[in-house]
Amino acid sequence: MRIRIVFILKNKGANVPFHHQFLLAQLVKGIVVRGGNEKYRGFNHYNFSGLKGQTKISRNGLHFFSSRVTLVFSSTDQEFINYFLTELFKFPTVEVGNLILIPEGVEKEETPALTEETKFICISPLVLIVPGFNDSQGKRFISPETEDFSDMLYESTMGRLADYGHYSTEQLAEFTKFQVVPDAEYLRKIKESQKKFARIYPVYDQDVKYEVRGYTFPFTLYAAKEVQEFVFHSGLGAFTHKGLGMLDVANTDLTNRTTRYEW
To answer: Which residues does UniProt call coiled coil (predicted)?
Structure first.
């Protein structure tokens, strides 16, 4: 299930870093732990976007000028979402960077129809490699047009599906179809304009800072419907519970996809 959490922005013009997923990850983890439910202390089958609103760019990052800011939050476990929302709304305000946010309401997104062939866009960077301590491997560039790129995402997804525990070994063995095919025209235009679709981002885990390479580009995923649904709700790649690898279906109407959510 995917929801949109709506916040009132108390201090218009305040800013966050361009990439602020690590700040949101700290906020989410803090709320989950403070709630005291041991069932969810180590739970990581969730995903979230960056903050959405009217922004302006400066050397200090993204400045928000809209009266409201939205966060897309997603999980395959509705009970976890309800737990998180209950704990979040106990706070009169929360802070992300310099933003002071007042939790106001929640909307539920309508799940789009997913098939064995789905074109996705990345709404947060997609990461392939989990680096070790004092290890630069996480920054290694792997071309999305190679088999290695798709194979690494397959291994990551199957491992997460196994950890999720809702599919038997026999069912997992049937999920052999998996291929990520990047939008070649998009990559061509990006290269011609000398822009980047792969950048280095900070990730914090166990109080240790890692640097990882994240990719943002449209692609088509060929996989079983169950796999499509899993990555749509839980993200794709590494560090999805840190707000990385969040996807949305390309060419969908975002304006008519929500209803008010009560929990």
So the answer is: none
pLDDT for 164 equals: 87
Report field, pTM of the whole predicted structure over 0.85 = yes
Backbone Cα Rg of the chain = 18
- In 3D space, the residue among 121, 142, 107, 96 whose CA is nearest the CA of residue 219 turns out to be 121
The model's pLDDT over 51-70, given as tens digits with 9 standing for 90+, comes to 999 999 999 899 999 999 99
Q: What is the pLDDT of residue 165?
A: 84
In a domain, 14, yes or no: yes
In the block, residue with structure tokens 């709700």: 233
Nearest 5°: the CA angle 226, 231, 237 is 135
Residue carrying the six token digits 């800013």: 15
Amino acid residing at 100: I
Domain count, the chain: 2
pLDDT band at 129 (very low <50, low <70, confident <90, very high): very high
Q: Is residue 216 part of a domain?
A: yes
Per-residue confidence (pLDDT) for residue 251, from 0 to 100: 81
3-state SS of 39-72 is HHCCCCCEEEEEEECCEEEECCEEEECCCEEEEE
Measured in whole angstroms, how far is the alpha carbon of residue 50 from the centre of its chain? 8
What gap in Å lies between CA 92 and CA 4, rounded to an integer? 18
Residues 132, 243, single domain; the answer is yes
* Same-domain check for residues 141 and 84: no
Range of the domain at 16: 2-109
Distance separating alpha carbons of residues 35 and 247, to the nearest angstrom: 28
